[in-house]
Predict the structure.
Amino acid sequence: MVHPITFNFIPSNYSPHELLSFYNQNNRIMSRRRQLEHEVSVAQERIKKAAKDTPKDILKLWEQELVDLELELNNMVDDEEDNNED
């Protein structure tokens, strides 16, 4: 006989649907976080390894993209920390 999975440690006020929804949302957030971390790393390398004759306006554009990515990543981390304080 196959027994359904039970979670004895989970408060009973959450339905299985709510738990699955939370799990899926958490996976999407973590996936986006990993993607942002990768994009930040790629952007840093692109700037670091830019040819000396790269136009300054292109470098400024790349630097702004890096700042935007870092800001999004930092906001995501801040939101996670705020949620963990509740």
In short: The CA atoms of residues 31 and 73 lie 12 Å apart. The first helix runs from residue 16 to 48. The radius of gyration is 20 Å. The helical segments are 16-48, 56-85.
